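Each field is listed here:
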Amino acid sequence: MNESLTDITEKQVVNLCDGKILGYVIDFKIDICTGRLTAIIIPGEGGIFGFKKCTDIIIPWEKICKIGTDTIIVDIGVIDKDECCDNEKRKKKKGFFS
């Protein structure tokens, strides 16, 4: 099956581990030496009015289990919100001066 990058961005990404819908692909990582797709990028969870916005989730190509007609199934385990959050949120969790 041949898919264009545009086709892939129109599919929902679902985590096999917990069944959570992660969202839609917003970007890609490509190895410019080989021309191969190495990862897909999903937007992280956002906060209220953009505050405490988490960074994007980068899913390596090896973690993609299946690309179906409407869905991309990935196996990335349970996402720890502390791991995906940006540095500002980490600073608040540890303390302002630490």
Summary: The chain is about 15% helix and 35% strand. Strands lie at 12-15, 21-24, 27-31, 36-42, 57-60, 64-67, 71-74.
